Amino acid sequence: MTEAAVPAPVTKVLDAAGTWLPGSMAQVERRLARAAAEPGGPIAEDATATLAAGGKRLRPLLVLLCAGPAAADSAVSAATAVELVHMATLVHDDVLDHAPLRRGRPTVLATSGRPRATATGDLLFSRAFAELAGDGDRVRVNLLTKASVALARGELAQRRDAFDLGVTEESYLERCRLKTAALFECACTIGDGRPTLASFGRRVGLAFQLLDDVLDVAGPPERTGKARGTDLLDGTVTLPLIRARDVDPTLDDLDLRALDAAGADAVCERIVATGAAEEVRAIARGHVEAAKAELDAVDFDPERRRLLDLVADGVVERYA
Amino acid sequence: MTEAAVPAPVTKVLDAAGTWLPGSMAQVERRLARAAAEPGGPIAEDATATLAAGGKRLRPLLVLLCAGPAAADSAVSAATAVELVHMATLVHDDVLDHAPLRRGRPTVLATSGRPRATATGDLLFSRAFAELAGDGDRVRVNLLTKASVALARGELAQRRDAFDLGVTEESYLERCRLKTAALFECACTIGDGRPTLASFGRRVGLAFQLLDDVLDVAGPPERTGKARGTDLLDGTVTLPLIRARDVDPTLDDLDLRALDAAGADAVCERIVATGAAEEVRAIARGHVEAAKAELDAVDFDPERRRLLDLVADGVVERYA
């Protein structure tokens, strides 16, 4: 349930839409920096550092792609708003998780303590909705509110299910929908301006999360930049483990609270040995294919269609 | 640095502007309830409970008064937004303070735990800015952002200064400006639509905080609904103690960390005995008088002027 670096799919899509997308993404980046820095003071500094720490910017990319090259400035503000909500959530999650590191860098919690990290998240939330406010469009505000609430509910579900080996596949998938897919869905609908791309966004987001969870179990550390099994160490039970238990019942005796790094790595090995990682990868690929197939029904120009295919494929490729 | 109940000044102003203000305040109340409940689920329930727990609604009252009876629906949304930011901040402060009670009721933290309380505050922040979004007015959004950041900085200052007997009067006043006066200022300027009432709002907010701090030291529990000295027990050094130390140097030996409820009550007695509480009360009254005098320079109809005088006086009276 953590994200890896390497924005390879983003690079590919940026290349493919070189005439307009890199420029718009650069605008989003400037807007993000301004949103964080403008209020001034130490909290704004922390917010700026958080944004500068990077991320794949997949969500704003989706907003811009769904809005298309002719989109107005409002697409840039929507893309900025979606990323700000994402970052705000990460900062508050780190506070709740007592997390010292994210993407290999110290978290705001680690550098500035709980009160400032809480305030930094608050600022990023405020700025997200402030970005949308300039346009006076209540529909977009409501979409982002809905997604924010889903993110929070997903985070709560993850906590509720922590260290619980008995988590069902259904409950895991619902958690993914709330924690990840909802904001991807929001990115697509808020960009396109119609609900048409909701299911596309949801499926791509779900695939993204599934592959992220596979990556945590099966990804080589030299590519993911982190040790395997960090989800296990956090007590987060994901689909590879849920599926693996069907094949290897000795995994039922696992005591997640007793795991150390070496133990987590060994459990990852056992999960991969059952074929569960490959199975979940296939499920994710299935969602990507279904997402792309759903675009057939949408009245898009071929160029936009091609770019959305590319970003959907990119979610799989970042893993391959 | 805590607030007492009893909205007597509000009642008085509502009576005086009976033809329009009670109706607008009722609209704000409905809008608050909708903002909290609309997203649905447990977080929305917590947000709803937080709002239902009450409060004086002084900030939205100021917004409406400064906007005047002819104000459009945008005054109601601004009033709602200001109160939502206030409530969001309280919820997150309670999380950081591990506070079990507020206004005599269990906090969201107490009823629902840290993750849900964090999410509830996030939701209230989001909803505050979402309220402003319908109008597409960036100026109001920026005013509210500025005030939110000030609140957060004030909270950080309070933490930095906690249990520090050596806090200067200057540093205390700056903390009050950030933690309280900034949102009062925002309420007035966002309502009036011009910066004209900034200083009026700031002074009324400062007086409000000063009197609140006097109340904590000198207020009879049967009127404030809480024991004296809760600020002392939280390690919050306020002006009555700062001033009292000038008169009674034995207060320099105080160990705030070692205080219990009986000890805090005894310290309050010693502070009152120095005359410091009365002194701070007079400073607050001075700010109220200065605030009212500043209205002389504002081009207002007499009726609005009268109501603003009344609300400024109310801040003092709630104490008398």
Set down the secondary structure blueprint.
The structure is a homodimer of 320-residue chains.
Chain A: H1 8-16, H2 21-37, H3 41-52, H4 58-67, H5 73-97, E1 101-102, E2 105-106, H6 108-133, H7 138-161, H8 169-192, H9 198-218, H10 221-224, H11 230-234, H12 239-247, H13 261-273, H14 276-294, H15 302-317
Antiparallel strand pairs in A: 1-2
Helix pairs in contact in A: 1-15, 2-3, 2-4, 2-5, 3-6, 4-5, 4-8, 5-6, 5-7, 5-8, 7-8, 8-9, 9-14, 12-13, 12-14, 14-15
Task: Give a description of the structure.
- The structure is a homodimer of 320-residue chains.
- Chain A contains 15 helices and two strands.
- Residues 1-6 of chain A have low confidence and may be disordered.
- The two termini of chain A are 18 Å apart.
- In chain A, a hairpin with a 2-residue loop joins strand 1 (101-102) and strand 2 (105-106).
- The radius of gyration of chain A is 19 Å and the shape is globular.
- The first copy, chain A, has helices at residues 8-16, 21-37, 41-52, 58-67, 73-97, 108-133, 138-161, 169-192, 198-218, 221-224, 230-234, 239-247, 261-273, 276-294, 302-317; strands spanning 101-102, 105-106.
- Chain A has 320 residues and is an all-alpha fold.
- Chain A has a two-stranded antiparallel ribbon with strand order 1-2.
- Chains A and B meet through helix 3, helix 5, helix 6 and helix 7 of A and helix 3, helix 5, helix 6 and helix 7 of B.
